[in-house]
Amino acid sequence: MTKVLVIYTGGTIGMIKDPETGLLNSFDFNTVYEHIPELNRLHTEIDTMSIKKPIDSSEMTSEHWVNLAKLIKKNYHHYDGFVILHGTDTMSYSASALSFMIQGLNKPIIFTGSQLPIGVIRTDGKENLITAIEIAASKDSNGESIIQEVAVYFEYSLYRGNRSSKVSSNQFEAFKSPNYPELAVAGVNIKYKWSALQRSEFSEPIYQFGMSKAVALLKIFPGMDIELYKGLFDVTQTKGIVLETFGSGNAPSIDKMQKIMTRYVEDGGLIINITQCSSGGVKQGAYQTSSFFNKIGVISGTDMTAEAALTKLMFVLGNEEDSDKIKALISMPICGEMEC
Q1: Which of 207, 240, 255 is the last residue of a domain?
Q2: Where residue 226 sits, what CATH number does that domain have?
Q3: In the predicted model, what is the mean pLDDT of the chain?
């Protein structure tokens, strides 16, 4: 039997209705077989654990990511795969962060959750949990895990974790992967897209737990007064900024904005340029309004999601000190988070 560890961090999926009061209370995952007897038919040994204090995903911090990564490291050789139950609001941030912190995986780490509590009759949580566990336990004909990366499973689709984004607060199809194909689709059978799957060159994962907090995310908008954000471009406080620009990487040609950004980059600050669009990417220099970014050394984030760009910036700044190496790492794919 394959062994899968289910880790509960909090979120909607972990709630069940009290039959007497009708109130939603936290679900005890040690009794998961009682509430989801279908798991008995998976022929998989399932262990469960919960973080000390389950939280709403809006409370998630980089410290929680580090603790999760260390928990995986501690249990890595005892299980064939891992399923992390997580609130949907920041799931893509957490999945992206762990993909950078644990590189070279040869086992799956599958994030999942639900839009309705597992104790509600119409819940999507049961199917999400059952299929996530099945995927985490799945092996190929050579006995190797089919999925060897951090992924998000939601509503019949499996996405690369650092390519996913939450796109709906009220639909069961809450996640999408705007610039990368689904890793698998669960229908009558689970169909894997083999060409999209990641494979490691290493026999053991590489763990790096540094995560810098000296980062920011700034969205450009028409008519914005850059003076309101001037303090953000203080390199003694903010080491890196993810800049969400228009279309393929464009921003208004405002002299004051360009001077502030130029000074920030000259002082050693990092700016990653990503698009505000829900799909597509940045092509710096394609238009005159983005050629300025190339001139001052703004880094193109190509087709990264905001979640991936921000957590990648946190990760690189938290683990590297050499400025040239930092720029090189941000500019290139580390674990499939951006196009080459």
Answers
A1: 207
A2: 3.40.50.40
A3: 94
Catalytic residue among 2, 9, 12, 275: 12
pLDDT tens digits, one per residue of 270-325: 999 999 999 999 999 888 888 999 999 999 999 999 999 999 999 999 999 999 99
Query: Mean pLDDT, to the nearest integer, of 129-133?
Result: 96
Are 166 and 175 spatial neighbours (Cβ–Cβ below 8 Å)?
A: yes
- Contact call for residues 110 and 151 (beta carbons, < 8 A): yes
267 has a pLDDT exceeding 90: yes
Q: Which residue among 207, 223, 252 closes a domain?
A: 207
* Residue 289 lies in domain: 215-331
CA distance 67 to 25: 24
56 and 105 housed in the same domain? yes
Q: What is the pLDDT of residues 4-32, one digit of tens each?
A: 999 999 988 888 777 778 776 777 777 77
Supply the pLDDT for residue 289. 80
Structure-model confidence comparison of residues 39 and 241, the more confident one:
241
Strand 270-275 vs strand 240-245: parallel, antiparallel, or unpaired?
parallel
Q: Which of 313, 133, 315, 132 is nearest to 210 (CA)?
A: 315
Answer yes or no: do 166 and 234 share one domain. Answer: no
* Helix ranges, the chain (H): 32-35, 62-75, 91-101, 125-137, 255-266, 288-296, 306-319, 323-331
Residues 226 and 170 in one domain: no
- Residue 131 annotated as catalytic: no
